[in-house]
Design brief:
alpha+beta; 2 domains; four-stranded antiparallel beta sheet; about 40% helix; single chain; three-stranded antiparallel beta sheet
Length: about 190
């Protein structure tokens, strides 16, 4: 999979995934119904037993059936498929990124160092399809939701592992908490 993403020096992609494909179920069912109805309508208009008045307009009516079917497919079926195809969840060793969009691209990026808490939840349907929602708490009463994440618990563990690999100074705004032990807890030099 090719993900064109500008990476900082030393940054690498750990995992890149699309949202779970189950969100395509209804657009696909609708596409099948539209195509079946259009096929029936086109075939009905192609019968020899049509009245002479309708038979004179047959080519125009059949063209109208095809045009309406294509318009319905383009309006209701194609956009969800394109949203899914051009959406990505990317975890690097420094960031969590959600990219969306075909013509108008949106990108939500969170530094792993800013994540306070991760929560994954699944409905019964989510569990059957091994997907779910990942809630990322970034503090200040701000929670970012990533929906339809495939294998959400595994994805969460990958994010947690990436956070664990961050240098401790990145986690605390440059304060080195792993110091060398030269100071005791009261602020006096060790002797």
């Amino acid at each position: 999979m090719s993900v064109r993403l500008k990476l900082a020096p030393g940054e690498r992609i750990i995992v890149a995934s699309r949202p779970h494909a189950r969100q395509l179920v209804w657009p696909v069912i609708l596409a099948v119904v539209i195509c079946a109805a259009a096929g029936f309508g086109y075939g009905f208009l192609d019968r020899d037993a049509l009245s002479d008045q309708i038979a004179d307009w047959r080519i125009y009516l059949q063209t109208a059936v095809v045009v309406v079917a294509v318009a319905l497919l383009a309006r209701f079926c194609l956009p969800p498929v394109l949203r899914w195809a051009f959406s990505r969840y990317i975890v690097t060793n420094r960031r969590l990124i959600h990219r969306q969009g075909v013509l108008r691209r949106r990108e939500r990026e969170l530094a792993l160092a800013t994540i306070f808490q991760l929560e994954a939840w699944q409905t019964v349907t989510d569990r059957m399809q091994r997907s779910g929602t990942l809630a990322v708490d970034v503090g200040y009463d701000r929670v970012v939701h990533y929906e339809h994440v495939p294998e959400v618990h595994r994805f969460k563990s990958i994010v947690v592992a990436a956070i664990d690999q961050l240098p401790m100074t990145a986690m605390f705004d440059g304060v080195d908490i792993e110091g060398d032990g030269d100071y005791d807890y009261e602020g006096r030099d060790d002797e």
